[in-house]
Specification:
Layout (H helix, E strand, L loop, with lengths): L5 H5 L4 H4 L3 H16 L4 E5 L1 H18 L7 H19 L2 E5 L12 H22 L12 H13 L4 H9 L15 H12 L1
Antiparallel strand pairs: 1-2
Helix pairs in contact: 3-6, 4-5, 5-6, 5-8
């Protein structure tokens, strides 16, 4: 799993606010696609309307759950990135095709998914680096074909399962049963319970 946008995103000042700008989102998403698919003998096309719809859906849920950042900011960053991934999967703005029809070069099993995950993972890692001076190493499962196959199959039925998948890659405890409910995330529940006890 490559996350090629991290160096460029790290150079952005105040990325956590910049990512909420539609123009920046569109430009950085396209740049990530170019970097992620480089050397793969693939051509890609991004549907502008679907990309904007995914952004607007993500932004709406971001504002609805923003108050949870006060409970656990790091976990909220991970949830927001997972929510972004879920909306990209749901609206599916990217299409990819082999640029060589003779099939000489075998493409990734799911290059579209790799581009979506790479982008959202890069955003989360860069925001955490800027906010907490904290780098998250990718776990070994990031390169496990079985994990990717399971991810692809599950998000086809329920795009919200992209959220706990991204949690795994970011070292967070996933919530597989109610992935879209930020209040039910293990980190949020633990800190809420601790606050009640004190």
């Amino acid at each position: 799993m490559r996350v090629p946008m991290v160096p460029e995103l790290n150079r952005e000042s105040d990325l956590r606010h910049r990512i909420r700008d539609l123009r920046f989102f569109e430009e950085s998403f396209r740049r990530n696609v170019t970097l992620t698919l480089a050397g793969e003998s693939l051509t890609s096309k991004t549907d502008q309307a679907r990309l904007r719809s995914s952004f607007l859906a993500w932004l709406e849920t971001f504002h609805e759950t923003r108050h949870l950042a006060d409970i656990d900011r790091r976990d909220f960053i991970c949830f927001s990135a997972g929510r972004m991934l879920a909306e990209l999967v749901r609206y599916d703005p990217l299409s990819v095709a082999a640029s060589k029809p003779d099939g000489e070069d075998k493409p990734n099993d799911w290059p579209v998914g790799a581009a979506y995950v790479s982008y959202c993972l890069g955003v989360a890692m860069s925001v955490m680096e800027q906010e907490f001076n904290f780098s998250t190493p990718l776990p070994n499962l990031a390169n496990d074909p079985r994990v990717w196959q399971s991810f692809q199959e599950n998000v086809r039925d329920n795009p919200d399962l992209a959220i706990p998948f991204l949690d795994l890659l970011l070292g967070q405890a996933p919530n597989w049963s109610e992935p879209a409910l930020a209040e039910q995330r293990p980190a949020v529940k633990a800190k809420t319970n601790l606050a009640i006890e004190n």
